[in-house]
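Sample entry (342 residues):
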Amino acid sequence: MKKILVKVLFCLFIIAGICSCGNKAKIDENGFFYDLDDAKKVAEKNDKNILLLLTSEGDDFASEDFLNNVVKTQEFTDTVAKDNVVVLFDFSQKSFEKTVVNPEATKKEQKAAEEYGLQMQKNFTFVNKLNIQVTPSIFYLTKEGYCIDQIRYYDGMTDASVLQSMIVTLGQDALELRTMIDATKTGTNLEKVIAIDNLLNSINPEYTILMLDLVEKIPEMDKSNESGLVGKYIVDIAEAKVLDFFINNDAFGAVQCYTSIFDNEYLDAEQKQYVRYMAAYMLLTSGSTEYGVVIKYLQDAVKINPDGEYTPMIQEFLNYVVQTIESVETTQQDSNAMPTLQ
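Predicted structure, serialized as tokens:
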């Protein structure tokens, strides 16, 4: 199986070229969606779950076998695709070659190329959020795009019936998740907030990033923090944004996600300590030389929660940072003072 390499990022910025544009749903030559948002609209309308497939056709044998023996078969069409909305993200060289525009392309083709390139970038960002490392990968999602579970590809998945049986085994999990999702839509605002919290606590933490739309509702529905959960989810919202900035190599933007909630009224002392520590850590590891700012964030983190569980660790880290910076500055001063040979 092939790792989705960082070099793909470079390819995503190549202007693309062959797919549909405008408001039409984005569907590939196999009849599968390649825009998850389009798929969610259709899934919602037809009350179906979503099967998300991630491949690298032609670049690794596993993807090739999976597509040819499972996905591109009549059996798959008659069973899996009949009962689910299928989305295919392909990150192969073959797909990226489609982004090469003929010099004689029309303006319409160039526009379509640009939109395709943006879509590929959007899909790759989504994959990064799930920290997917290999292809093929398979995810079973609700109609809202929430993850029911990942279906592990293995060499014995030789035809569509194997995949269909694995989907069927997730039926009870899908029903239980559906019940919990539906609970977030009824009752008082407080009851909805508690239902969202229960839902988020019941799933794999790796997949909560896909439920950001629910998380963002909590501060709005519980402005008096009656649930006591608002601070927790304000931090979670900030960290979701941090991930976006991190994927785009914007360390300054990521740090700002933390600093913007330093004094948020809903955060308790431990949460305020945490965001200061994370801002300092991220700023330091970004290569920034704003050492004074890093030290201040850490000092404030210790001060704001002096008896906290993690305060000794943060104090130890602060001492290490101060000593390291002093050592570097001393070395630089000694280097500048060294006589030069004539």
